[in-house]
Amino acid sequence: MIKRPDHMDDKDFCRLTFDMMLAWDAPGTGTEPLLKESSSSSSPRDEDGDGESLFSINSTNVAVQVGEGKSVGLEAFARIARSCAAIADLITIHNLFDALTSSSGGRLHFIVYEKYLKSINKVFKSAKGHIGSPLSSSLKLANGEIILDVAGVIPTQPVLQHIGMSAWPGRLTLTNFALYFESLGVGSYDKAVVYDLSMDSKQIVRPELTGPLGARLFDKAVMYKSTSLADPVYFEFPELKGHSRRDYWLAIVQEVLYVHRFIRKYELSEIQRDEALSKATISIFHYHALREAFRINPPDFKSVLGFNLAEKLPKGDMILDALYNHLELLHARSQTHNCIELKDDTNTHILSVSSYTLVIMGFMPLEKLERNGVNNFMVPLITIGETTSLELAVKESYCCSGRVEAAFATVDQVKMEGLGANFAVMQELLHPIIELIKLLVLLAEWEDPLKSLAFIVILIYLAYRDWIKYMFPSIFLYIAVLMLWNKYRSKLQTVKVFQVNPPPSKNAVEQLLMLQEGISQLEAYIQTGNVALLKLRSILLAGAPQATDRVILVLILTASAIAFLPLKHLLTLILMDTFTQEMPLRKKRSEKFRRRIKEWWVQIPAAPVQLLKPGRSKQQK
């Protein structure tokens, strides 16, 4: 089916694949088959014939099959990803299907599918047009380097590079290995500056604010930073409304960065590296096609970029592990094929769909298809009823993503605008702790001698009776009992909204001053602190029952350890754990443990917050 370079441009291919999905979606419905032998004695079309279609298809039957009202579901669409990487990828198949069916209630119609394939074909042709072009020659691309996208060539959609206080327009080119920026000179472009994304130089790519003379005014830029650069570089994508261009370029640059991180982490061989880069390349083409055809910019958890998605999803490392296992099988089979003669057993075939697709499309040299006379890249057979480890890892990760998305939604709701509002929320959240600290300071300063004396006597008595070790267990048990009580109450009534008296309104001059860089950074820190405190409040008040149960269990276990283990032994264990986390034997496990803690934390929803109107007290609510 996919052995011809122009198969994506064949309308019969589009109709046939959709008809196959219809059959998979509703088998045995009594519909007429799409491919039907002609009643005449005409022979089938030869796939190598000049100007003829790849398939022998009756147009009338096609119209019946893909007529109005016909649609397919996710399971049927997912089967295409196994055999045709140009259409979909196993890792992002769910998000791609959701994007295509966002306006049709989870059912894919032929008109949308056809438009999507046309857009993909257009993107493939545009990218293939860069091969051997003046742009490719001027950049002096290495072997195997593919131009993925170019920005800054249209006057209405410029790209500005900011370094320090200076800014300059130019042309930005992304390949599967690097970023190239060519400053706009007099009638031509200057020599390109290369930002190698394949290097291990602690590279960071993130959204950032930019503006004239280094001012942080417009949220339309991508920041690139690495140890090889003295100052970070900002690429601004100006547009009148929103920042969709920036979001698109941020996503595809991160995809290239993440795939090279994956290659270095698992030390992939050449054939494995080619497959990983091919998967990233095709996924970027998918994203480009969606954006061009449907004006879609999927959020993080709905991304159609495989490696980008694995970095964002909970348990995304399991997806990368499963992908690596698949590539290990690919490498092992390639070694076997180089040593022994191929047999007719299809179980010995190498499954490398993405690389095969790029070879057929003309992006990779034909030498990749045959090495030493042996086919190293073949189209895999679809195994009906069998689920691969990669699909299982993707399903498990998607199951966990729902709670994360819900938690992120609550986080977005409680983020307040303005330093004053965020400071008011933090001050109210920390009110009990602030009062306790004030009391301890009061006792330490002996402003009330009677209270200070009583406090010291109690401390001495506790130390003399050796009861100090029970102080923290008592506190943890008290908190655990309080959380159990709050969890019981939450079954009877919902968690109360956290109410905060807002600060006085500020005039225009004060608001402009708050836009300065230092204050904006402070605002971000306080905002992050508020989110953390509100999540703790949600746990404490059993706003997230599953998280509350785990915290209760941890507190009880911690209380037991502190209560029954000698203090010196406990401190020894803590010090040993702290200073051995980065040793080679524990490094991988420590990284996984920190990742699990982070993933668990982001799943916790933040407690709701409400800013009261000025002059209205909490008692009046």
TrEMBL record:
This is Uncharacterized protein. The lineage of its organism: Eukaryota, Viridiplantae, Streptophyta, Embryophyta, Tracheophyta. Residues 30-52 are annotated as: Disordered. It comes from the Eukaryota. PANTHER family: HEAT-INDUCIBLE TRANSCRIPTION REPRESSOR (DUF639)-RELATED, OS02G0637800 PROTEIN. The chain crosses the membrane at residues 470-486, 551-576. InterPro entries: DUF639. Keywords: Membrane, Transmembrane, Transmembrane helix. The keyword Transmembrane applies.
